[in-house]
Amino acid sequence: MAANFNALPFWEALTPEEREALQALLEQDPRLARALMHWEALQAYLRTQLEMAVPDRRLLVLYALARSGRAMLLTPAEQDELERARPALERALQALPALEAVIADITSACVDFEEAWAVHFAARRHRHRAAERRSRPLRRRPVYRWVVRLTLGGVVLALAGILWWQQVGQRVEWRVAAGASAVRTLADGSIVRLVGPAVLRYAERFDRRLELEGQAYLEVQANTSPFVVETPEAIVTVLGTRFGVRSTGGQTEVVLVEGRVALNGRGRAETPVMLAPGQRSRVMAGQAPEPPVPVRMPEALAWTGLHIFNGMPLGEIARYLSSFYHVPIRVDTTLAVEPIVGTFAQDQPLPEILQALAATLDARVARSPEGYHLLPRR
Q1: CA 204/CA 40 separation, integer angstroms
Q2: For residues 194 and 214, what is the distance between their CA atoms, to the nearest angstrom?
Q3: Could you report the per-residue pLDDT of 150-204, keeping only the tens digit for each?
Q4: Lowest-pLDDT choice from 34-43, 80-89, 313-322, 349-358
Q5: What pLDDT is stored for residue 42 in this prediction?
Q6: CA distance linking residue 46 with residue 324, whole number of Å
Q7: Does the pLDDT value for residue 138 go beyond 50?
Q8: Mean pLDDT of the chain
Q9: CB 3.0 to 4.6 Å from 229: which of 96, 196, 236, 311, for a disulfide?
């Protein structure tokens, strides 16, 4: 796997010549390249841990300001928002003690900034005393705004030293080109069908967390540890289930086949949306998820390259397959209401699919010039 040079914290500051020289150096020295990949893996791991513990990092800054006696710098709306989030933040501090170091760092930044602010304006008053008499009184609320900007960028780095040994390993990157699909079984037994164009990333020492760009259909093995799929717009958390995820055009769509799924937008503090089997929800970038709506499974997941039936009556399945393959299919009225659970590849021959459906109900398939007919076995 190639090193991601953009993962370097100083990459943007390098000139094109320096970047080229660094790339050449890393290509010549595999140890340096591995170190860079470890750094990239650590960054991804820390982002994941922080997103889980504190989805809205701004709230951590509000919490630090209030705890350090600077609650007066918060607006009434911010104080209300903080009170609503306080229980979750305190749980996060218990789960990740390293966040206490972040709180201390924010408090220290407040002190440093306030000292610099006081020195700057003391000098300004000395030079411009007459003009300042005519000026409006200085408001201190902007201190908080600057502290937010100064400290948010350092939150992840403050965790790095403490969490470094918890997980350092290479990242696996799996790409599937447009128009293609591929299936992979993960270390925990979960199965992923990646439908291109798509990219999937996860830790080589698998931790049941995936980063997805594109489309994937997953069959997740039940486990006491949550299984999480992150897209640029959303976070999908499951225990054991089958579902489809599409991240395209600035939105993520989730369709649940069976099991339980919690869906939320990245960085959102609201309670996640819970999907029931047969439902779909969408998340636009920066937004909360849409309320779940019922969908017909085969059509909603047609992009997977599979026919997915999860309790659909045989009569409806016949109409769907007839439309898909452009072949008339009839079902005897005694069989039409029977529910079917099954999954078939779309490139599988139609006669094979019909024979499998018939076998499920101890029925038979009759072929005629007009098409196919599913009948009770006599």
Answers
A1: 13
A2: 8
A3: 444 444 444 444 444 344 457 889 999 998 999 999 988 899 999 999 999 998 8
A4: 34-43
A5: 57
A6: 45
A7: no
A8: 78
A9: 236
Tell the residue number behind the tokens 């069908």, with chain if given. 193
Position 376 pLDDT exceeds 80: yes
* Cβ contact 310:303 at 8 Å: no
- In tens, the pLDDT along 26-64 reads 677 777 666 666 565 555 555 666 666 666 777 778 888
At 127, list the tokens: 């030079």
Q: Does domain 171-298 have CATH number 2.60.120.1440?
A: yes
The Cα 121–Cα 224 span in angstroms is 56
- Within the chain, all domains assigned CATH 2.60.120.1440 are found at 171-298
Residues 146, 166: Cα–Cα separation, whole Å: 32
pLDDT beyond 60 at 130: no
Tokens of 261: 């799924």
- Average pLDDT, stretch 63-67? 81
CB 289 within 8 A of CB 282: yes
CA distance 175 to 196: 8
Query: Is residue 273 over pLDDT 60?
Result: yes
Fold classification of 305-376 (topology level): Phage tail protein beta-alpha-beta fold (3.55.50)
Q: Residue 40 to residues 47, 106, 378: CA-CA distances in angstroms?
A: 11, 25, 64
